[in-house]
């Protein structure tokens, strides 16, 4: 099945009761598939057609705080339009899961894949997962709800898959057992929810002397403390479903590597192929794949890079006026703890292919110690 079909199946397995939908390429077929499931009676859910992405997020935030497991999906400019509502969902501690099919930001107008849209949302308070395969795209929906609904966390989850490379491309996907999935997740159980019989309010006005700062710190602490829960839940998920989800990161051929790259998303598959190819030539290279980007897996990266001669960070996103966000997070997490050269490479913007020879060029740049390259496969005029 395609990545978008796999996501819809993950939503079905999670027994989501409210779906809010607004179309945007290349996400649209996720909610179209869910609409079909609802219409056919395959999914017992309320399907809400809204007039904008902002309304989609507002709708599922509202349904969640009544104690109903809810879902939406979007891409690109839709996520930008949601930006305010994303902060509200996280600040109100709503355990939503939303899928984002990563797509370029215009202008110029572009519907193909890159990750700038969701890297721009890294500070909204949402946990972030970047999938490499369609199997991960499906499994990460169920895992996302399990983590988000943990009462020590109660933060929403973004589940990312790359435009067209995963969203519209078919791969073998093992559909998990519905009864096992239902037992695994159970029902959404909030200690505080909107109820006509027990009136309460969410998001009330808070003065400077109120616990505003304390609440924000609690969000920050919950995100940090989620690391342990994520590890445990991944282990439990893999055992229960005979699955193969990585940890917060995946280390590929890192045991004796001298040089390594950090990647996220579907472009990691090409990177792994390149690592195997270069290993056959006797070059000790490896790969660190980010599965979770928020909370940022600082300790996992620190353990993986010890002994390296150089590290490269592959960014399929763009930050103007400073290095890429992944590079900054990697450097920040390693500052004062390990002393190795770290370089930043911008790749694949607007859906441009990231090829084996591009990865070979990055590895060769690391090995040679040449810091002149930072944009890969781009024509400089």
Helices and strands: which structural class?
alpha/beta
Named CATH architecture of the largest domain = 3-Layer(aba) Sandwich
Strand content: 15-25%
Radius of gyration: 21 Å
Order of helical and strand elements: HEHEHEHEHEHEHHEEHEEHEHEH
How many domains make up the coordinates? Answer: 2
Structural notes for this entry:
The protein is of the alpha/beta class and 381 residues long. It has 2 domains: 3-241, Rossmann fold (3-Layer(aba) Sandwich), CATH 3.40.50; 249-368, Rossmann fold (3-Layer(aba) Sandwich), CATH 3.40.50. Helix content is 40%, strand content 15%. The protein contains 12 helices and 12 strands. The strands form 2 sheets. The chain has a 7-stranded mixed β-sheet, sandwiched between helices. It has a 5-stranded mixed β-sheet with strand order 7-9-8-11-12, sandwiched between helices. Strand 3 (70-74), helix 4 (76-91) and strand 4 (97-102) form a beta-alpha-beta unit. Helix 1 (3-13) packs across helix 2 (28-40) and helix 3 (53-64) packs parallel to helix 4. The chain is globular. The N and C termini lie far apart (42 Å). The mean pLDDT is 96.
């Amino acid at each position: 099945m395609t990545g978008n079909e796999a996501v819809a199946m993950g939503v079905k397995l999670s027994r989501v009761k409210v779906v809010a939908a607004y179309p945007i390429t290349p996400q649209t077929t996720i909610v179209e598939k869910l609409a079909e499931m609802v219409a056919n009676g395959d999914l017992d859910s309320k399907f809400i057609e809204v007039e904008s992405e902002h309304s989609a997020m507002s709708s599922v935030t509202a349904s969640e705080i009544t104690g109903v497991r809810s879902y939406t999906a979007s891409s690109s400019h839709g996520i930008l339009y949601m930006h305010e509502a994303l902060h509200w969902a996280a600040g109100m501690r709503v355990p939503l899961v939303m899928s984002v099919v990563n797509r370029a930001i215009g202008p110029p107008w572009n519907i193909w894949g890159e990750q700038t849209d969701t890297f721009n949302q890294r500070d909204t308070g949402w946990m972030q997962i970047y999938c490499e395969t369609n199997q991960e795209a499906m499994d990460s929906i169920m895992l996302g709800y399990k983590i988000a609904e943990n009462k020590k966390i109660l933060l929403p989850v973004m589940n990312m898959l790359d435009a067209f490379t995963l969203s519209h491309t078919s791969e073998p996907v093992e559909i998990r057992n519905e009864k096992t999935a239902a037992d695994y997740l159970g029902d959404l159980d909030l200690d505080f929810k909107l109820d006509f019989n027990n009136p309460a309010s969410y998001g009330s006005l808070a003065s400077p002397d109120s616990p505003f700062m304390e609440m924000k710190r609690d969000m920050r602490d919950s995100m940090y403390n989620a690391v342990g829960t994520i590890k445990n839940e991944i282990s439990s998920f893999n055992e229960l479903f005979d699955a193969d989800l990585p940890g917060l990161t995946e280390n590929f051929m890192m045991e004796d590597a001298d040089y390594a790259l950090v990647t996220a998303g579907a472009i990691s598959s090409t990177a792994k192929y390149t690592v195997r190819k270069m290993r056959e030539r006797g070059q000790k290279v490896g790969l660190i794949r980010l599965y979770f980007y928020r909370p940022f897996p600082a300790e996992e990266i620190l353990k993986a890079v010890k002994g390296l001669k150089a590290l490269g960070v592959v960014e399929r996103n763009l930050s103007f006026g400073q290095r890429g966000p992944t590079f900054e997070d990697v450097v920040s997490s390693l500052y004062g703890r390990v002393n190795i050269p770290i370089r930043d490479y911008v790749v694949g913007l607007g859906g441009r292919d990231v090829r084996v020879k591009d990865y070979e060029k990055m590895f060769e740049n690391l090995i040679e110690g040449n810091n002149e390259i930072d944009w890969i496969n781009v024509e400089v005029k």
